[in-house]
């Protein structure tokens, strides 16, 4: 039996029969380790343009990382790729990228169509990419014409040999056909095929008729295409699929059986393939089966109460009969998944420094019950923002990681007096009425922390609020009156209250006073027992329990051992639960997890479990305007939830109704 069929069966058994869970998990674990098999990874983006940009960025990073060695790119054509190439051209130009060591192999080319025809793939590639990046005397860093390869009918075997002679493709781009083809390897193509001449299927010709005046008869009948064997020898593969028409093919490729009927399904066996999808292409990836959660205690209407819940297509639904999956919660607590609005990094990824590794953090956070978060960026230069913000754009990893909801920009409009761990040299003590000059286009930004008292600070708050961005006041020397002005202009939150702001004074209560007595202002606190002593946490809770939102302000050290780490461009030193800028006494974020923070909150304040849970789920969701879709267990909400023991240890985390973390799993 095919290992993968067995694997899929085992997965189903885990869900259907909890009694076999341990044996099955052990079996799967051994399987995965011995056979080095990974499930297909996918990422779902709100914007296909963001996904395209990230692919272009990844190509550029690869080219830069191999300065003096050949970089072999497998390139695809088709509508999906145009925006990748448009971003790629821009980045190459902006960064004066050296392409002298780049070698490209195109996936396919039509037959019986002159290369000069505008619809040939030669023309496509030259028009969309090569023309502007080609080597010439004026462009000595350009790609050399002799390094650009297309398959042709005469030399099919030579094509694979050439690719092999370079040690195979480093990064292969793929689209997917409605019928599941990759390149032009149509359904039925053997998985061990090398470059060959293919007769195009009717679906493919119909789909491509849009490039040939809408007439299928004008679409060539044959093509030459890179074989599947050659494709899957690539070291890394990125498959892009956008739009409703790809949804079946995507579902079959990722969740279906590996079969030559769906050529892309073979990618399940490739250890380094990523699908990058938009929401339309990903819509069938949700579990279609109905799930019944029973024998649990559910946080609903502010109370933990016995009951049941039903899930379909990743959302809570009203009562359903005959559910396919029954989940016995063994009397445990079920709460909405935790949402961390301020987190600088985790598991070795510092979002301001190596944001390309954010997936590691997103995966790791699941064990703490976090199902969604706002990666937070420390005060940076415009150049740094322009490089990293695109990499932190909203996306979902399905059940394999916490969702990125958007970005929290902490700084740089801060008081230099309260810069804390932020780089003093990049702080801005005045706003020049040009919001984009520092941050760029602000795409995906959900929260900006700033000091309201800086010059033109109030107009900055007005401007950000008008764009639907939540303004939080922090790293600030604001007086009480300045804080009130900030609230008046639209500020909704105070960032890590007490830390990095004017201390409370009986004649100048500052932001602290405002947060504790003004009902309109929420405040976040870091409850690690170090940033605030337990009594201060209790004071906050007693004065304004409604406004309290838990954040971790965690850094890349979260989940890792003591040692030397980073926060932006600074080195940090981690000693137990204390993190400092190395060699100083300046506190630099935390390494507390969200579920530890909520346990601490209960211990420090004596608050109800429900209040602590809501401070980590409902409240943050409300603040950024995504409640009740997130942060609730109501019918219609996303089925992102955490199963907790009575002592609030995370037993399981679910995203979209799919098990994504299991204690001891
Ligand atoms: P498309 O084609 O990007 O034009 O949708 C992809 C493919 O058929 O492989």
What does this structure look like?
By secondary structure, the protein is an alpha/beta fold. 28% of the residues lie in helices and 23% in strands. The chain has 19 helices and 33 strands. Strands 16, 19, 21, 22, 23, 24, 25, 26 and 27 form a 9-stranded parallel β-sheet that branches. Helix 4 (82-94) packs parallel to helix 5. The chain is globular and about 85 Å long. The model is unreliable at 1-16 and 22-38 (pLDDT under 50). Bound molecules: 2-phosphoglycolic acid.
Tertiary shape: globular
Which regions are unreliable across 5 or more consecutive residues at pLDDT < 50? 1-16, 22-38
> Got a strand count?
33
Averaged pLDDT: 93
What percent strand?
Answer: 15-25%
| SS-based class | alpha/beta
Largest sheet: 9 strands, parallel
Helix segment tally: 19
Percentage of residues in helical conformation: 25-40%
- How far is the N terminus from the C terminus? 25 Å
In terms of quaternary structure, what is this? single chain
Bound molecules: 2-phosphoglycolic acid
Question: Rg from C-alpha positions?
Answer: 27 Å
Short description:
Helix content is 28%, strand content 23%. With 665 residues, it is α/β, with parallel strands linked by helices.
List keywords for this structure.
nine-stranded parallel β-sheet; binds 2-phosphoglycolic acid; eight-stranded mixed β-sheet; globular; 665 residues; 19 helices; alpha/beta; 33 strands; single chain
């Amino acid at each position: 039996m095919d290992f993968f069929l067995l694997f899929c069966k085992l997965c189903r058994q885990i869900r259907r029969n909890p009694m076999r869970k341990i044996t099955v998990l052990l079996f799967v674990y051994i399987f995965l380790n011995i056979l080095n098999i990974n499930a297909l990874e996918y990422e779902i983006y709100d914007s296909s343009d963001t996904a395209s940009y990230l692919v272009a960025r990844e190509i550029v990073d690869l080219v830069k990382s191999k300065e003096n060695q050949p970089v072999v790119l497998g390139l695809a054509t088709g509508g999906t790729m145009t925006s990748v190439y448009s971003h790629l051209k821009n980045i190459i130009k902006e960064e004066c990228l050296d392409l002298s060591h780049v070698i490209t192999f195109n996936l396919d080319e039509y037959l019986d169509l002159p290369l000069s025809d505008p619809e040939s793939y030669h023309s496509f590639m030259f028009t969309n990419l090569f023309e502007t990046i080609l080597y010439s005397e004026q462009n000595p860093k350009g790609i050399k014409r002799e390094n650009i390869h297309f398959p042709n009918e005469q030399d099919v075997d030579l094509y694979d040999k050439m690719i092999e002679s370079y040690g195979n493709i480093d990064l292969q781009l793929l689209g997917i056909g409605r019928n599941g083809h990759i390149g032009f390897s149509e359904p039925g193509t053997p998985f061990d095929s090398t470059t060959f001449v293919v007769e195009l299927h009717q679906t493919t010709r119909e789909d491509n008729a849009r490039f040939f005046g809408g007439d299928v008869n004008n679409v060539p009948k044959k093509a030459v295409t890179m074989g599947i064997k050659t494709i899957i020898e690539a070291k890394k593969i990125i498959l892009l699929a956008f739009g409703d028409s790809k949804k079946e093919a995507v579902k079959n490729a990722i969740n279906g059986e590996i079969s030559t009927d769906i050529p892309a399904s073979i990618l399940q066996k490739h250890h380094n393939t990523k699908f990058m999808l938009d929401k339309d292409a990903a819509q069938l990836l949700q579990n279609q089966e109905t799930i019944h959660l029973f024998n649990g205690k559910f946080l609903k209407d502010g109370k933990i109460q016995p009951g049941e819940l039903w899930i379909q297509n990743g959302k809570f639904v009203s009562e359903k009969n005959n559910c396919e999956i029954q989940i016995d919660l063994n009397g445990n607590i079920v709460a909405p998944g935790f949402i961390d609005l301020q987190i600088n990094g985790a598991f070795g990824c510092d979002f301001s420094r190596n944001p390309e590794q954010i997936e590691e953090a997103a995966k790791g956070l699941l064990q703490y019950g976090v199902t969604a978060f706002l990666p937070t960026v420390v005060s940076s230069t415009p150049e740094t923002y322009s490089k990293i913000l695109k990499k932190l754009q909203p996306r979902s990893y399905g059940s394999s990681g916490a969702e990125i909801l958007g970005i929290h920009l902490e700084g740089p409009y801060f008081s230099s007096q309260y810069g804390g761990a932020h780089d003093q040299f990049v702080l801005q003590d005045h706003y020049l009425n040009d919001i984009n000059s520092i941050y760029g286009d602000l795409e995906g930004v959900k929260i900006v922390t700033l000091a309201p008292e800086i010059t033109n600070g109030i107009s900055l708050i007005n401007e950000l609020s008008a764009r639907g961005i939540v303004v939080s006041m922090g790293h600030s020397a604001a007086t009480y009156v300045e804080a009130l002005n900030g609230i008046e202009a639209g500020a909704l939150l105070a960032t890590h209250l007490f830390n990095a702001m004017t201390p409370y004074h009986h004649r100048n209560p500052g932001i602290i006073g405002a947060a504790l007595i003004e009902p309109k202002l929420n405040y976040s606190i870091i409850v690690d027992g170090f940033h605030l002593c337990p009594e201060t946490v209790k004071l906050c809770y007693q004065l304004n329990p409604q406004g309290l939102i838990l954040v971790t302000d965690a850094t890349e050290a979260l989940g890792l051992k003591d040692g030397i780490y980073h926060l932006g461009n600074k080195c940090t030193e981690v000693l137990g639960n204390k993190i400092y800028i190395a060699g100083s006494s300046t506190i630099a974020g935390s390494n507390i997890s969200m579920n530890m923070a909520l346990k601490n909150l209960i211990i420090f304040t004596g608050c109800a479990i429900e209040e602590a849970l809501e401070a980590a789920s409902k409240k943050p969701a409300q603040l950024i305007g995504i409640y009740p879709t997130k942060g609730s267990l109501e019918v219609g909400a996303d089925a992102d939830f955490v199963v907790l023991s009575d002592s609030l240890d995370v037993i399981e985390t679910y995203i979209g109704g799919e098990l994504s973390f299991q204690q001891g799993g």
